[in-house]
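User: Hey, quick favor. My workstation is busy. Could you predict this chain's structure for me?
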Amino acid sequence: MKDHTARQELTESNARQAMLAACGAVGLPRVPDAPLLRLGENALFALPEVGVVVRVARSKEMADKVTKELSVARWLAGQGFPSVHPTAAEQPVEADGRLVTFWEYVPDGTPATSVAVLAELLRGLHALPDPDFPLPLLDPFPIMRHRLETVSGIKREDVRFLAEACAEAEDDFRALIGASPQHLVHGDAHRGNVLCDGSSQALLIDYEAVAIGPRPWDLVPTAIATDRFGLPRSDYEEFVRVYGFDVTQWHGYPVLRTTRELGMTTWLMQNAQGGAAADEFELRMQSLRKGDLERRWHAL
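Assistant: No problem, here it is.
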């Protein structure tokens, strides 16, 4: 029998319950009102008094992904790359049908909002040797299909359109990947995954999507930020200068952009049953249907 908890939507309430159970299991203090730092594919809670961030994955079915994140984080630490480190606790811990991991707490520093900072981190990441342990090949489509298969409260014609668009994009994506050099990539390289510590050192965080793939994939989010989200052209030019390559001039950019935009839209779709998310989802659907590459999107 399948575990219903594992399939349950991740909410602040049930994530907090798993966090408290996991903390008790490893001897950390159970703090019922621990601040929630982020709620998305994972929930992150801060325990600054003991220097720990507790990360609750959506379900225990994500075991391979969670194990990979821990391996990547330890390897990056060994390479001296600016990153966040898991604690010494034996982990992951299963709690309430979810997997929980424990990471060093990084005190807030000056926000690293410059895309030039991200470019410098990516240049350093891409200069590293490929890890000496297996990593999955870059493949953003399974999670998109899963979202489309399990979503509720979204118009059937929208789900059908996205499913067909994903199927078409997947063929183009796989052809491009098969013809491109593949190395270590972060997989979700945007400014939201840059954290600045108390000494103002920028750290690249969140290793859930780390994979082996074409390096231009990590440059696409910043290009899309210019195309869709109003990032000033001068900022993008600085990003290109620091990294040393303009992905928008690469022949594979249209394919990678389409794939990334479908991923962003199916992610938003999960919470688009009402309010601002529903309005933004409708806007994105209109632009995708029309092939409008200049329509302004809004980050939520």
